[in-house]
């Protein structure tokens, strides 16, 4: 018998539309056919389970926030110093972790196959609201969630534990591991979730799940660790490995939310349920999650600038330098292999993730103050973030960052199908904006993370290969005023920007 599993977010139908901020545009044609890259991730197999509109979920968010505020004060009203027997370790664990759990929701388009009267099948696209959960891992507002929660969502709306709302930007993602990092907009600091470990879990120990189950925000459920090291196939193209199996009640909308131990520490990220079963759900172990997120951030940083060092965590704390690029800014700053970085600017460093996060907000060309230990002595130096166009980064990424001021990734097949269906075109794809360089041409024209670049001048940017060919074109190398086309919230918009002049080089 074959078992089937599904990601645990869900979608609700909506009819709302949003106002445009740019001029609506036609899609340009041109540039040769090129490959389009994408990874398919199932977004809930049982769409029919959601039967309430988004407005109901929003009402519930206010109710849930009020309930949590009441709960936070009620426990202090006990007579004298006596602690009620009702205040169990589970209550304490939820109270400790809940403020760092956020609810994510936003519009996306899904496609389903519907049978026609003639017996043939047709793809049907509909606009839906996706729901999911995330956990704050850094006080500046960096949040980890599942990739399938934010995939193809153009505006990520967030409800915090206290009921306040904001939006978030997608910073980095890893579709193959179904993880993403987003950043909350607004002033911090934000409360971070206490971290546990998944390498010492015991079958039978109690666990707690918190999430946006069916739109009921901050729903908490309890269970046990049912098994460890489960390998779970989701569909023909995706599978999860080495998961935690739990009996805690996990439902659509819990995707990306925390699985906690009884101390209120995150030990996993909830990701999937067994279809048709009860009390069989799965979470990605937190040690695996943080390793993947660290790699995601490092790749993101490398696209923007080069520091020129690699390191590892060490038992005594800090981030130990294990390798340096000859002539790189880290080496020029006086760092050597074996040095232990303990602080970057004002951030204390104990793990590779903390080091990666500490430079995530840095801009190319910025000098970072680095405090490190060598033997028994503590030193301070400054390390420059050299723009990646002068380093060893991917040449297409370097050109895009230098000339336009953006980092991009392919939008994927789902975007292409949606565009062709909605606009009756034969479009080949686009490039999702994942970062915008401050002061660049893109920044001046208010291009933002989540927009999809469709074309420049009369050429389509349907793939990275297309973008490389466009940026190497003699006309573009002269830094013209270029017309650009983007998609934002399923609307095609255009504008004009002054591209940076490229230095004269000999093409190979």
How would you characterize this protein structure?
By secondary structure, the chain is α+β, with helices and mostly antiparallel strands. Among the domains are: 308-384, Roll (Pdz3 Domain); 392-498, Roll (Pdz3 Domain). 20% of the residues lie in helices and 37% in strands. Strands 3, 24, 25, 26, 27, 28 and 29 form a 7-stranded antiparallel sheet that branches. Strands 10-11-12-15-14-13 form a 6-stranded antiparallel beta barrel. A 6-stranded antiparallel β-barrel has the order 4-5-6-9-8-7. It is globular and about 75 Å long. The relative contact order is 0.14. Mean pLDDT is 77; it is low at 10-79 and 114-118.
Helix-strand blueprint:
Layout: E1 5-7, E2 10-13, E3 23-24, H1 54-74, H2 89-97, E4 101-115, E5 121-138, E6 142-145, H3 147-150, E7 156-159, E8 165-174, E9 179-184, E10 206-213, E11 216-233, E12 239-246, E13 258-261, E14 266-274, E15 281-285, H4 286-304, E16 305-306, E17 309-313, E18 319-324, H5 329-332, E19 340-344, E20 347-348, H6 352-358, E21 367-374, E22 377-384, E23 386-387, H7 395-404, E24 406-410, H8 413-423, E25 431-436, H9 441-444, E26 452-456, E27 459-460, H10 464-471, H11 474-477, E28 481-488, E29 491-498
Antiparallel strand pairs: 1-14, 2-5, 3-29, 4-5, 4-7, 5-6, 6-9, 7-8, 8-9, 10-11, 10-13, 11-12, 12-15, 13-14, 14-15, 16-23, 17-18, 18-19, 19-20, 19-21, 21-22, 24-25, 25-26, 26-27, 26-28, 28-29
């Amino acid at each position: 018998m074959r078992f089937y599993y599904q990601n645990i977010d869900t979608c609700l139908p909506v009819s709302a539309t949003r106002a445009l901020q740019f001029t609506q545009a036609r899609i340009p044609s041109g540039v040769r056919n090129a490959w389009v890259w994408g990874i398919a991730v199932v977004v809930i197999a049982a769409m029919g389970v959601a039967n309430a509109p988004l407005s109901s979920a929003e009402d519930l968010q206010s109710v849930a926030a009020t309930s949590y505020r009441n709960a936070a004060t009620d426990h202090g009203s006990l007579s004298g110093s006596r602690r009620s027997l009702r205040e169990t370790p589970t209550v304490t664990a939820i109270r400790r972790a809940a403020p760092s759990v956020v609810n994510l929701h936003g519009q996306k388009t899904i496609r389903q196959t519907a049978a026609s009267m003639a017996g043939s099948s047709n793809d049907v696209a509909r606009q839906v609201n996706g729901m999911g959960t995330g956990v704050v891992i850094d006080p500046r507002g960096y949040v980890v969630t599942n990739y399938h929660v934010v995939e193809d969502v153009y505006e990520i709306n967030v409800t915090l534990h206290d009921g306040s709302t904001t939006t978030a930007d997608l910073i980095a993602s890893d579709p193959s591991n179904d993880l993403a990092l987003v950043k909350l907009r607004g002033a911090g600091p934000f409360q971070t979730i206490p971290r546990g470990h998944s390498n010492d879990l015991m079958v039978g120990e109690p666990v707690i799940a918190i999430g946006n189950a069916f739109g009921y925000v901050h729903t908490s459920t309890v269970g046990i660790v049912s098994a460890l090291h489960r390998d779970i196939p989701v569909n023909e193209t995706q599978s999860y490995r080495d998961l935690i199996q739990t009996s805690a009640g996990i439902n659509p909308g819990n995707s990306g939310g925390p699985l906690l131990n009884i101390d209120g520490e995150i030990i996993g990220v909830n990701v999937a349920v067994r279809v048709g079963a009860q009390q069989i759900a799965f979470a990605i172990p937190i040690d695996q999650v943080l390793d993947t997120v660290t790699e995601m951030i490092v790749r993101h940083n490398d696209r923007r600038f080069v520091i020129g060092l690699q390191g590892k965590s060490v038992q005594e704390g800090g981030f130990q330098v294990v390798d340096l690029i000859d002539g790189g800014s880290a080496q020029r700053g006086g760092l050597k292999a074996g040095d232990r970085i303990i602080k970057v600017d004002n951030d204390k460093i104990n793990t590779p993730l903390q080091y990666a996060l500490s430079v995530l907000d840095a801009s190319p060309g910025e000098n970072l103050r680095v405090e490190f230990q060598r033997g028994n002595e503590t030193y301070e130096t400054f390390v420059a973030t050299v723009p990646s166009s002068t380093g060893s980064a991917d040449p297409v990424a370097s050109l895009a960052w230098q000339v336009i001021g953006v980092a991009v990734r392919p939008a994927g097949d789902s975007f292409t199908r949606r565009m062709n269906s909605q606009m009756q075109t034969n479009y080949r794809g686009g490039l999702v904006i994942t970062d915008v360089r401050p002061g660049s041409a893109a920044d001046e024209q208010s291009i933002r993370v989540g927009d999809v670049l469709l074309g420049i001048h009369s050429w389509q940017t349907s793939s990275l290969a297309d973008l490389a060919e466009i940026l190497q074109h003699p006309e573009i190398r002269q830094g013209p005023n270029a017309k650009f086309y983007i998609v934002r919230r399923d609307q095609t918009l255009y504008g004009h920007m002054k591209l940076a002049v490229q230095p004269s080089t000999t093409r190979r």
